[in-house]
Write a structure and sequence with these properties.
Elements (H helix, E strand, L loop, with lengths): L10 H8 L4 H21 L8 H29 L13 H4 L4 H19 L11 H18 L7 H22 L4 H24 L1 H6 L5 H5 L1 H18 L1 H5 L3 H5 L2 H17 L6 H24 L1
């Protein structure tokens, strides 16, 4: 894409900065949590306890927080010098390319943070999650900033993905609906987290050399590219095997259907092995985002159809 065609601070610039392709990572855990809650509400014979208002609020909060995290990542990686026009291999970033000014990005971060809090606040009503949702929301906001500014440089990004793209959104979405959390929900959250971590793995696999030079000790930098490739394959297999918990709880299709995802995941893994390094790995990044959405869709359909 030719950055000269993008006017600074224009609507198109903001759309690119929001990274809409990443929203699948925000939608999938909420989608799985909602499907689990709805199927269990039907099982208990009281589908009326399921709140569509709370479901929409959970989705909106997840979407806005993802955009907020993208803005924070864009700004701070530019300020730290991690993103460089000459060496960057990944998709172009708004501040680095000059599409968004630093001051405007700071204002946007403040706005999206406040908007996410405003959207999530009604979930603190007793009919939904209760006052503890305020603490959950604050923790999400704090770690949204800590990830880019500190924790990703310490190699803890993968742990945060497991927690904040798996366990937390799946469990909290379920809890808001049924006011409890089951072992099936926790396992589903972990499976969702490892699936989404594949996106971070391929991203850091592509950037391993520039990250090492910038002092960003990601998991890929620590364990090396060969081990990362096997880990990438392993997270897909592990997620499908953790789906045995669905079978054990009578959701057989929720275990079977995600193997469609695994086939796609294996093809992407083979593509990563072939390409190995360079900008061409961005194709694998897009494929992984697609695979994540397929996984979420297959699990959700399996839960509802079972």
């Amino acid at each position: 894409m030719n950055e000269k065609t993008i006017k600074q601070n224009s609507p198109r610039a903001w759309l690119l900065a929001a990274r809409p392709k990443t929203l699948s990572g925000a939608a999938v855990p909420v989608m799985i949590g909602l499907s689990l809650a709805y199927s269990d509400a039907l099982l208990y014979g009281d589908a009326g306890v399921f709140s569509w208002t709370a479901a929409v609020l959970c989705l909106l909060f997840a979407f806005i927080m993802q955009i907020d995290a993208n803005f924070v990542n864009d700004l701070f990686d530019y300020v730290k010098g991690t993103d460089d026009r000459a060496t960057r291999l990944g998709p172009e970033r708004a501040c680095t390319q000059g599409w968004i000014s630093v001051e405007r990005m700071k204002h946007a971060i403040a706005l999206t943070t406040c908007l996410a809090c405003a959207v999530g606040l009604p979930l603190a009503y007793d009919d939904y999650g209760g006052l503890e949702m305020i603490l959950v929301g604050l923790v999400c906001v704090v770690f949204c900033f800590l990830y880019t500014t500190h924790l990703s440089y310490m190699g803890l990004g993968d742990v945060l993905v497991l927690v904040f793209f798996g366990l937390v959104p799946v469990s909290i979405t379920y809890y808001v609906q049924l006011h409890t959390v089951t072992p099936e929900v926790l396992t589903a959250g972990m499976a969702c987290g490892v699936v989404i971590d594949a996106l971070l793995l391929v991203n850091n696999f592509r950037d391993r050399d520039t990250d090492r030079d910038a002092g960003k000790n990601t998991l890929v930098v620590r364990i090396g590219p060969k081990a990362t490739l096997w880990l990438y394959l392993g997270v897909g297999i592990a997620a499908c095997l953790m789906g045995l918990v669905f079978w054990a709880n009578g959701h057989v299709l929720a275990f079977v259907l995600p193997f469609v995802y695994l086939v796609l995941h294996v093809f992407t893994w083979l593509e990563m092995k072939r390409i190995w390094q360079g900008r061409e790995l961005n194709r694998c990044l897009g494929q992984t985002a697609r695979n994540i959405f397929v996984y979420g869709l297959m699990v959700a359909l399996g839960l509802l159809l079972s």
